[in-house]
Design brief:
Layout: H1 11-20, H2 28-46, E1 60-68, E2 71-78, E3 89-98, E4 101-106, H3 110-118, H4 124-130, E5 156-164, E6 175-179, E7 184-186, E8 191-197, E9 200-204, E10 209-214, E11 223-227, E12 232-235, E13 251-257, E14 260-261, E15 268-269, E16 272-275, E17 284-287, E18 290-293, E19 297-299, E20 308-311, E21 318-322, E22 331-336, E23 340-354, E24 357-365, E25 370-372, E26 376-377
Antiparallel strand pairs: 1-2, 2-3, 3-4, 5-6, 5-19, 6-13, 7-12, 8-9, 8-11, 9-10, 10-13, 13-14, 15-16, 16-17, 17-18, 20-23, 20-26, 21-22, 23-24, 24-25
Helix pairs in contact: 1-2
């Protein structure tokens, strides 16, 4: 892909011409603007790779799906070779022509939200999601996603591969492979959905998260459509239109936050906490004290609420509920390992050690009883619904 010169002055008028010529033979001016925009998006997509030899650069697919005045919107994909440990990468972009040239932002970047707030190409429903301020929530100890597993709630699918990189063995281990059930792949959480290329759908959610679904057969064709949690995106498959390899139908499910793939380990998805293994494709997931490794089944319990936790009795069968924040208070019964509880508020009490360490934090449940936070998986190392 050649380097295009920067546009000045008349870029807005030329891009308006592109809009008016949709469905007609493009003029030389419209084609020039499209070429300049494509070159600018490609340069941003490839980054330092743009400086390498032409033979070493990945092939790219830039799709301008919407234009209006000096604005453009679309997808930018770097295709991958059709081999193992390779997957395509890409972004959704918003571009605005300015006197100094094209200003381009990719989904997850702070500038993307700024442009989305102004762009006439972004619908009101999209704007609610796309203008989310990026923040490294997981880095601050908050691993809550509000996501279900990417298939029907109440179904059990096979975790064919544990956490691994989006492209294979590289870090971070952002992805897992899932197969089975009715083979219908569904959105893990509500958001705005985009077709990156055939067989690959990205859904942008709130809190800076997005999820990728690859190798789909019969994938939907979407350009910012609002989808609810559980919306059908396609079927498990072996599609590698944009590169990579797939042996046996499945969905390659990846987690992104802000503008990059992030470690999926530690995040709660479908009330399972993903965990890495000794190497890529190993590892598994935990629900309460129950462990499921690669090759085991995962039951989709649905999304864990942001004020909820899953009881992890650390090998015990149940957790004692108390009348106050400590073992000195009377017993009010118990709650089973793996049960979902709703937390009203928290307070400090007697100290206990669970799977993830020692804490004096206790949580008051919605029924008025108290349990130690040492035996709850909430996605947060601290109170999740304020102090009592």
């Amino acid at each position: 892909m050649r380097h295009g010169r920067r546009l000045v002055g008349g870029a807005a008028a030329a891009l308006l011409m592109v809009t008016s010529l949709i469905g007609a033979a493009p003029s030389a001016a419209a084609a020039a603007v499209t070429s300049e925009l494509t070159a600018a998006v490609t340069a941003k997509l490839l980054g330092p790779a743009e400086l390498s030899t032409a033979d070493a650069r990945p092939d790219t697919r830039i799709t301008v799906s919407r234009t209006s005045g000096r604005w453009a919107f679309g997808t930018a994909v770097a295709l991958a070779p059709r081999q193992e440990d390779a997957h395509p990468t890409g972004s959704i972009f918003i571009a605005r022509s300015e006197p100094a040239g094209w200003r381009i932002a990719f989904d997850g970047e702070a500038a993307f939200g700024e442009l989305a707030a102004e762009s006439p190409l972004v619908t009101a429903a999209e704007r609610n999601v796309l203008t989310t301020t990026p923040a490294p929530m997981y880095a601050g100890g908050d691993y809550r996603t509000g996501m279900a597993l990417p298939f029907g709630v109440g179904q059990t699918w096979t975790l064919t591969s544990g956490p691994h990189g989006w492209g294979g063995s590289e870090s971070p281990y952002s992805s897992v492979d899932l197969a089975g059930g009715d083979q219908v792949v569904r959105a893990a959480r509500a958001g705005a959905a985009y077709t990156m290329c055939q067989g690959w759908i990205r859904v942008i959610h709130d809190r800076g998260y997005s999820t990728d679904y690859y190798h789909l057969w019969n994938s939907i064709s979407v350009n910012g459509a609002s989808v609810g949690q559980g919306a059908a995106l396609g079927n498990t498959g072996t599609d590698v239109t944009c590169g990579g390899a797939a042996y046996g139908r499945h969905v390659h499910f990846g987690l992104r936050q802000n503008s990059a793939y992030v470690p999926i380990a530690g995040h709660d998805i479908g009330k399972w906490v993903l965990a890495n293994g000794a190497a890529a494709y190993q590892g598994g997931a935990r629900h309460g004290s129950a462990w499921a490794g690669a090759g085991a089944g995962l039951y989709n319990y649905g999304a864990l609420g942001f004020n909820q936790g899953v009881v992890d009795a650390n090998g015990g069968g149940s957790l004692t509920r108390r009348a106050g924040p400590g073992t000195g208070y009377g017993s009010l019964g118990s709650v089973a390992d793996g049960a979902t509880v709703t937390i009203s508020c928290s307070a400090n009490g007697t100290s206990h050690t669970g799977r993830y360490g020692t804490t004096a934090l206790w949580n008051r449940l919605s029924d008025g009883s108290w349990v130690s936070d040492a035996y709850l998986s909430t996605g947060v190392n601290g109170p999740i619904n304020g102090w009592c």
